[in-house]
Amino acid sequence: MRIPEKWLRHYCNPPLDAAGLDHVLTMGGLEVEAREPVAAPFSGVVVARILTAEKHPDADRLQVCHVEVGQGEPVQIVCGAPNARAGLVTACALPGAVLPGDFRIKKTKMRGVESGGMLCSGRELGMGDDHAGILELPADLTPGEDLRQALDLDEEVLELKLTPNLAHCMSVLGVARDLAALANAPVQLPTFAAAPVSIDDRLPVDIQEPSLCGRFAGRIIRGVNAAAPTPDWMKQRLERAGQRPLSALVDISNYVLLELGRPTHIFDLNALKGGIQVRWGRQGERLELLNGQTVEVGPDARALPVGVVCDDTGPVSLAGIMGGQGTAVDPERTTDVYLEAAFWWPAAIMGRPRRFNFTTDAAQRFERGVDAETVVDHLEYLSQLVLQICGGQAGPVTDQITGLPERRPVQMRLSRLRRISGLSLEAADCVDAFTRLGFVFEQKAVPAADGQDADAVFLVTPPSRRFDIAIEEDLIEEVIRLYGYDRVPTRPPLARIQMRPAPESQLSALRLKRRWADRGYQEVINYSFVAEEDDRRFRTEGEAIHVQNPIASHMNVMRTSLWSGLLTNLRLNLNRKAERVRLFETGRVFLPAPGQPAGPLALAGIAQPIHLGLLAFGPVLEPQWGASPRAVDFFDLKGDIQAVHPEAKLQFVADTHPGLHPGQSARIQLPDGTFVGWIGALHPQLVDALDLPGPVFLAELDGAPLMTRTLASARLDSRFPPAIRDLAVVLDEAVPAADVEDEIWAAVGQDPSAACVRHVILFDQYRGKGLENKEKSLAFRLWMQHTDRTMNDEEVEAVVAMVLGRLTARFGARLRA
What we know:
The protein is α+β, with helices and mostly antiparallel strands. It folds into six domains: 2-38 and 156-183, 2-Layer Sandwich (Phenylalanyl-tRNA Synthetase, Chain B, domain 1), CATH 3.30.56; 43-150, CATH 2.40.50.140; 205-401, 3-Layer(bba) Sandwich (Phenylalanyl-tRNA Synthetase, Chain B, domain 3), CATH 3.50.40.10; 410-487, Phenylalanyl-tRNA Synthetase, Chain B, domain 1 (2-Layer Sandwich), CATH 3.30.56; 509-622 and 629-706, 2-Layer Sandwich (BirA Bifunctional Protein, domain 2); 723-815, 2-Layer Sandwich (Alpha-Beta Plaits), CATH 3.30.70.380. It contains 21 helices and 42 strands. The strands form eleven sheets. Strands 27-31-34-38-37-36-35 form a seven-stranded mixed sheet, sandwiched between helices. Strands 3, 4, 5, 6, 7 and 10 form a six-stranded antiparallel sheet that branches.
């Protein structure tokens, strides 16, 4: 926000120099980002009056001007500006002048005619971007006067960086109020005299939506001269505040906005048909705005309505945002106007400008809150400016109120202020702060909770302009702000830390990540927002949780799987010529959970479990001489999971998933049958859709079971040699090898004579000659060992026979010949 310093000092002029003023504002939360003069540095430029302007004898577009520059004799200057004419007061750079960019002026000849200087445009002097012609200055300036002094070009403009809670400072008067409080200086508040009423014309107004508009005031002014020039003092203030002057009526409305922070609108009365209605936009209604954009004003896809001001034909303005082209004032045809000032509820404006891909100064203020008590006062001020500059006859003010913001008292405890700020402030400091801010407050003493001295409590009623004062912490901020952030001592934070137990049976997330990093996988971190289309590919059931206000159109739902992000990472790596990719991610997924209550770490109705996602693509090993190249497959990824998480004893059961290859996918479960995830190859259709060069293998597991591990227990090592036997059994091809291995361990656990079995390893699988069509042979190696003696052959054979008997009874297995 740009504020000319003299405009600010007109309302509040503390005894501070430029550096002191910047420091006070910045320490009060109104950060001064920059301070710069109105115009770039230049010298040797004076006010000049063109006495004559004649056509150049040898050039069609040049004129030979005789210019009065305060030197007694006129100076001859050749100029090509189309607006150069006799009687014009402009800027002249004399020989020896230095313009911005170190451009030096000297006498020269142009097409054979001597030129003793240069008549300057605004851009050549660093006073704007206008280069269509030379400057046109007020006629009352004295030729020969230094231009910087004549136009006060050394005035400095402050660039303020305002935080969103400082909506009351989005005006010159608002900043002046805060400056007065911060510097403890007087503030000169404007007076709002009622404009003289000479006609009785009124425009009927019907507020149909009280939730949209709380107050609507307006008046008719007839016989205005819309083509009247904007006063130079107003144009100067607008330009220096960053607002380009357009026409008198528009400039007056913009001036009131910048000075008072009050957005207003001026309608061409003759373009309005009938009375005014204030309501929500309806489906199918359209409006052409002042910026030339035509918009739909009906509810959007989220059924969010937008407010409109209508006449009998339909919408003529976006409420609190921007006016319509059809009722805009025009300097050539407007004679009667309707002035409008209103209070729009902030909730009715929030988010609406973004729907149309733009924002406005009015919307920025209304969505943060504009004073509802001063609507009529500011309308009177606007009316006075219109009558003074454009003339006309004013009708009475019509003011309708459907509801105003309730300003409830806010309580602040002195003890709370001290605890939050760490400062030993007294009640007198709070009284001083609230008084300087102009707050209405009451002070009382209440018994302290700890039995110590009574605590001072303040009940503060926020002014109607301060929408940011709602809770105790807001008042604490105001007291500290006026006390001075620079006076707050720097102290290290002190807090008591209670060490939480870290059970050995729980694997930390960092340890889990290190295991996969040690396995050769690289960690990635992705957004939790994904495109609904990408997430739907891997969703087995239900719907995703939609983001109400997505930061981008392709990030509109909360992810239910980590795979969409991993595949995006894969494509980015492949685009950069990566050949072998191993990725993992640990992060939350978001699933609808109707009936789930809210808790310290839980949201009502939304489950947020932590998942582990894995992706493998490309060759199994990096290129090397010791092994033949081979592409990664299902069993490589499965083996990685079993190697990294052996304590989980995960089981893999063939099953189908919509995003995985029908013949290469499996459900992952715990020994008790609890489902924990999926593994498999990406579906071939998705491989083609994502334009991937080869098969991709994915896995996703619930993180909680993976972080639980069995504590190690001590066991004696045997000094005696082991007995090793290989057991090859023939059984039906449909029997999973994992079920056979589980049955062997079950037999070992249930028969005391088999307690000597230490290891069971599947080392061979055979199909072919010697077996029936639908049979297979599985070979297991049993490792048996006692800790107190050497096993004899009878004991070993008894264990093998017992295991074979269990497999025969369960699966119909027979010993392979």
